[in-house]
Design a protein that fits this description.
The complex is a heterotetramer, with two copies of chain A and two copies of chain B. Chain A contains nine helices and two strands. By secondary structure, chain A is mainly alpha-helical. In chain B, α4 (154-166) packs antiparallel against α5 (171-184), α4 (154-166) packs across α8 (314-320) and α6 (232-246) packs across α7. Classes of the chains: A mainly alpha, B alpha/beta.
C-alpha cells in the first residue's frame, strides 16, 4: 500500500467506512461541542449520515469517483437534513462534480475536489472564512493541498498537510465569533469555543489520512 | 417524560398517520411518503404554496395546508429541517404550471435545503420563488432583520398569501404580497418551561419553576433576558414595547393581533395576555382589526406565549378576511 | 406556579376581559356583568341555548357561544358553579319568546343552581327545559348513567342542538335531539399531570412524573386506576374498550370521534392517539364520519387526553355537519 | 338575657355574625374535611358566604325574620355558588318562607323553619337521610326540636337539644357511604370519614346555641 499516489472508487468506499467509524467514535464529543451553543445533534446526524453513505456506496456498482461522491452527498443530505448534513450534501455533490468522469484521482484532483467542496458550502451557506464555520477548517485544507502540489508532495503527504491545516483551522475558530446558525445568537459568548462544524471538516480529512496509513 | 407516545423514534410518523387518519378529506401523503403532505384537491393554474420545517410545532407547519392557505408541506424530524429531496417531491406534486412559492422560517438548515430544492425544481422546469419569514424581534437587532428567526407570525404570511393564490394571482404577485406581510409583522415571546424532544428524553434547557426567559425562540434559542417570572401585564409590557418600537407601529395604524400559546399554556392565560395587549394598543392609538388567540406555533409542551402584530393595509386586510379551511385552522369570511 | 397571570383573584375576570376584547363582534357581557356572556346578535323566535359552569376549562363553557351553537353562558370561578342568579340573568337576556334550553354537565353544584334558575325563570314567565350531559364511563358503571360526570362529549350536544335551534326548531324538539346526543356519546380519559388553581397555588392532586391515572375527571376526580405511564397505543386500548362496551358500539355503527387534550398535551400526541383510535375502530368495523382533534374541554395546564365517540344517526349527522362560528370553534358546512 | 323565649330580627342578625365567626374559626378544618374526598373549598365558601350574609343583614332595615333569613340565603347562594352554598341558599329561603311575616319566632317557629330548611335541601339535592350529607345532621335536629316542643322545653333547651342531635348525626355519617357530590365517586372509601356538609349543618346550629348562652 506504500507510495500509493491515486485513489480509486474502491478506496473512496473504504474511506467513507473509515469516516463513518470516526463519526461514531466521536459522536458524544461532537454532540457536546454542538450542545454548548447549538442543539447538540451533530454527533447523531454525522454518525447516521456517514454510516448511511458508506452503506449506500458499498452496494453501488460504480467506478466513477465523482459519481460516488455525489451519491454519498445525496444520502447524507437525505438522512441528516441538519445544517451540517445539508452542507455535506452540497460539498460532496459539488466536489464530486469537480472530479466527475475519473475512476482514479490524484492529489491535484483532490485539491480541485476540496476547493469545489468549500465553494459549494460557501455558496449554500452564504458564509465566508472567519465566520466560525466548517469553512474555517476546509478552506485552509484546500490551500494546504495547493501548496503540497506546488511542492511536489505525495498523495499521502498532501493529505497529511491538509489535515494539519484543518486542525490549525479548528484551533483558530476559538478566536472567532459565530456568524451563522444557532450559535450566532450567542455572539461574543462563542469566543473561546471551537466550532463543531469545523471539527467535522477536520474529521472528514482524518478519514482520508487514516486510510492512507 | 410525561408523554403519550409509543417509541420515541416513531413519534413523527405516527403523528402523521394520525393526521392522515383524522383528515382524509383534506390532506394526503405524496405517493405514500408520509413526510410529504399535500392537499387532496389541486386547482389547475393556481400558484402552489409550499412550506416545510421541523416537527413539534403543530399547527406549524403542515396544519395550514388546506383551502385558502397552503398546498403542501415537507415534514422534518422533531425540530429538524426536512430534506431538500422531500421538498422537491412536494414541489412537483403541487405545481400545476403556475409555479411554486416556498414560504418558510429563517433557520439555517431550512434555508439551505429549500435553496437546494429550488435549484433542483428549476432544473425540472418548475418555476420557484421563495419567501423567508423572520420576525422575532428578540433574535436580532433592527438593521439585521435578515438574521431574525421565523416564529408564529408566519401564520399571517400563509393566510394572506394563501388567500391571494386562491384568487389565482400569479407567482410574482403572491410573492410580493407575502414579502409585504413579512415586512409588516413582528413577534416576541416568553418561555416559562422547556420541552423534551422524544428521542432525546430530557428537557432542551433548564428553566426553574419561578423563572422565565423573555425572547426565547421556539427551539429554546436564547432570548434577551432571563429572570424571575413576572405578572402577566408586566410580561406583555416587556415584549410589546420592542415590537412596537421596531417597525415602528404608530398612532393610527391598524393591526391584527396574534396571541400564540407555546403548548402548555392554558387559553385562559392567553386571554389574560390579550387583555393587556388590547389595553396598550388602545392607549397607543393603534386600532385592532382582528384578534387571533390560540396555538398557532408551538414547541411541544413548552409553557409560554408570544405576541405578534401585523400592520395592515387595505390589500392585506382584504386577504386576511378571506375564508380558510385547513385541518388546524378554519375561518369564515370576516367583515372587512 | 408557572402561570402567566396577574393577581390570582383576578384570574377569571381578567380572562373574560381578554375574551371580550378579542371577540367584540361575537360575544358581549349582559349589562356589564362579565360573568354573564351572550352572543352579540339575537334571533327572534329562536330557542335560546344556555350553558354554564366553572372556569378553567376553555373552550368550555363560554367558548361555544356563537352562530350555530349556544346563545349564552354563565361563568363561575375556577372549577366552581356559577350562581343561579347569573344563570337567570343569561336566561332573560337570551330568551326571545321560544323558551330556553339549559345544557350543562352533571356536577352537583351546577345541577342545583340550574334547577333554581329554571324555577326562577319559570316564575318570570320564561319556559325552560334542561339537558344534563354525563358521559364519562369511568365515573359510574352502566346502569348508573345518571351519576356520570359530563366531560368533553358535551361539545357534541352543543354542536348538534345548536344547529337544530338555528333551524328554528321548537324547544321540545331541540331538547329531544340534545337528549339523543347525550344518550349516544361516551367518553373516557387519562391524566398525566395535575393542574393548579390560581387561588389555591398548589396542584389539585399529586401524580408522579412516570405515572398516569386512567379515567380521571377534569377536576381531578378519581379515575379507575392509577399506574405507571403506558405507551400511547396501550392507553388508547385501555380507554377505548370501556367506551365501546358501554353503549355498546357495534359493527356497522357510524361515529364521530373527538380526541381532546386536557391542556398541556401537544397536538402531536393527540394525533398519535387518534392513529390508534382509527386502527381499533377500523378493526371493529365501526365507520368514522368526522374526527375532531384538539382542545375542547381542558383542565388548565393538566396533561392528558380523552377520547369521545358519538354514535350517529342521519339526523345527528346532518346537524353535526352544519356550519358553526364561535370564538373557539369554527366549522364550515361538512360533506354529509 | 335569661329565660329569653323568642328571637327577633336583631337576634337573627347577631346569630349570623356568630355563625360567620364560627365558620371562620373552623375554616381550615372544614377545608380539610372537604379535601379528603372533595375539592377542599368548603371552609372558604362557608366563611365567605356567612360573612357576606351577616354583612348584608347588618345593613338591612327589616324586622321580618322570614325575610331576613331569605335574604341571608340569597347572599350565600350568590357569594358561594358551591353545593353547600346553593343548599344553604335553598334552605334559608325555604326556612324563611316558613316563618315569613313574623317579627319574633318561638321554638315552634324554629322547628317549622328547620323542617322547611331540610325539606328544601332534600328537594334541591334529590337526597334523603342516610346518604351522608348535610341532611344527616339537620334532619335529626328538626326531630329533636319537635321532641323539645312536645316536652315543653324552653327555646334555649330546644336549641341545645337540636345541636346535640346534629352532633350525633355528624358522628353517624362516619358509618355511611357518600351518595352525592364528589365524595360519591369514592364510595366505600368514604366509610369512617365524617361528612363535611353535615358538619356545616351542625355548626350553623352551634351559632344559635352560642348566642343563647
Ligand atoms: N451558513 C453556514 N455556512 C456554513 N457553515 C455553517 C452555516 N451555519 C452553520 N454552519 C456550521 O454548521 C455547524 C452546526 O451544524 P448542525 O449541528 O448540523 O446545525 P443545526 O443542528 O443547527 O442544523 C456549525 O458549527 C457551523 O460550522
Ligand atoms: N345532592 C346533595 N344533597 C344534599 N347534600 C349534598 C348533596 N351533594 C353534596 N352534598 C353535601 O355537600 C357537601 C359538600 O359541599 P361543597 O364542598 O360545597 O361541595 P362542592 O365543593 O363539591 O360543590 C357534602 O359533604 C354533602 O354534605
Ligand atoms: Mg446541531
Ligand atoms: Mg439540528
Ligand atoms: Mg367542596
Ligand atoms: Mg366546590
Amino acid at each position: 500500500m506504500s507510495a500509493k499516489n491515486t485513489l480509486t472508487g474502491n478506496d473512496i468506499k473504504r474511506i467513507f467506512e473509515r469516516i463513518a467509524d470516526i463519526m461514531e467514535e466521536t459522536r458524544d464529543w461532537l454532540g457536546e461541542l454542538d450542545g454548548a451553543m447549538g442543539d447538540g445533534d451533530l454527533g447523531l446526524t454525522m454518525s447516521t449520515g456517514f454510516r448511511k453513505a458508506a452503506e449506500a456506496l458499498r452496494d453501488l456498482d460504480e467506478k466513477d469517483v465523482g459519481k460516488l461522491l455525489a451519491k454519498a452527498g445525496m444520502v447524507i443530505g437525505q438522512s441528516a437534513p441538519s445544517t451540517m448534513g445539508t452542507l455535506m450534501a452540497t460539498g460532496f455533490m459539488k466536489g464530486g462534480k469537480a472530479v466527475q468522469g475519473k475512476e482514479e484521482v490524484q492529489l491535484a484532483d483532490l485539491a480541485a475536489l476540496v476547493h469545489a467542496f468549500v465553494e459549494g458550502i460557501m455558496a449554500r451557506g452564504k458564509a465566508k472564512p472567519g465566520e466560525k464555520t466548517i469553512i474555517d477548517s476546509l478552506h485552509p485544507a484546500a490551500q494546504a493541498l495547493d501548496q503540497a502540489i506546488s511542492e511536489g508532495r505525495s498523495l499521502k503527504e498532501g493529505l497529511a498537510a491538509a489535515y494539519e491545516a484543518a486542525e490549525k483551522g479548528v484551533e483558530a475558530t476559538k478566536a472567532m465569533i459565530s456568524q451563522h446558525g444557532r450559535p450566532a445568537y450567542y455572539q461574543e459568548k462563542t469566543l473561546g469555543k471551537q466550532d463543531p462544524g469545523a471539527t467535522v471538516g477536520m474529521l472528514v480529512l482524518k478519514g482520508f489520512v487514516d486510510y492512507m496509513s | 417524560m410525561r408523554k403519550l407516545i409509543n417509541e420515541p423514534k416513531d413519534f413523527v410518523n405516527e403523528m402523521l398517520e394520525g393526521i392522515y387518519a383524522g383528515h382524509p378529506d383534506m390532506v394526503k401523503p405524496v405517493d405514500g411518503n408520509l413526510r410529504c403532505l399535500v392537499r387532496t384537491t389541486k386547482k389547475e393554474g393556481k400558484v402552489g404554496l409550499a412550506t416545510g420545517g421541523g416537527s413539534g410545532h403543530l399547527p406549524l407547519f403542515l396544519g395550514y395546508v388546506g383551502e385558502g392557505m397552503l398546498d403542501g408541506c415537507s415534514i422534518g424530524g422533531v425540530f429538524q429541517s426536512p430534506s431538500s429531496e422531500q421538498m422537491l417531491i412536494v414541489t412537483k406534486a403541487i405545481d400545476s404550471g403556475a409555479g411554486v412559492l416556498y414560504i418558510y422560517g429563517n433557520y439555517g438548515g431550512d434555508v439551505m435545503n429549500f435553496d437546494m430544492a429550488a435549484e433542483m425544481a428549476e432544473m425540472e422546469g418548475i418555476r420557484v420563488m421563495q419567501v423567508v419569514a423572520g420576525e422575532d424581534v428578540a433574535s436580532a437587532p433592527k438593521g439585521k432583520e435578515d438574521k431574525r428567526r421565523g416564529v408564529a407570525g408566519i401564520f399571517f404570511v400563509y393566510k394572506i398569501a394563501g388567500a391571494y393564490a386562491e384568487e389565482m394571482a400569479p407567482l410574482e404577485e403572491v410573492k410580493r404580497v407575502a414579502d409585504k406581510v413579512c415586512a409588516n409583522v413582528r413577534t416576541m415571546g416568553v418561555a416559562l418551561s422547556p420541552c423534551t424532544i422524544p428521542e432525546v428524553g430530557k428537557p432542551t434547557f433548564e428553566l426553574g419553576e419561578g423563572e422565565m426567559e423573555i425572547g426565547m425562540g421556539i427551539h429554546g434559542e436564547p432570548g434577551v433576558r432571563r429572570g424571575p417570572l413576572m405578572k402577566a401585564d408586566q410580561v406583555v409590557d416587556e415584549i410589546l414595547r420592542p415590537i412596537l418600537d421596531d417597525l415602528p407601529f404608530t398612532r393610527g395604524d391598524e393591526v391584527s393581533v396574534l396571541i400564540n400559546g407555546l403548548g402548555a399554556t392554558p387559553k385562559e392565560e392567553l386571554y389574560i395576555l390579550n387583555r393587556r395587549v388590547a389595553q396598550v394598543l388602545k392607549s397607543e392609538g393603534i386600532k385592532v382589526y382582528h384578534t387571533y388567540v390560540g396555538e398557532f406555533a408551538t414547541s411541544l409542551e413548552m409553557a409560554g406565549a408570544s405576541v405578534s402584530l401585523l400592520r395592515l393595509d387595505d390589500e392585506m386586510k382584504r386577504l386576511l378576511a378571506k375564508p380558510a379551511n385547513t385541518p388546524f385552522f378554519v375561518q369564515p369570511q370576516l367583515q372587512v
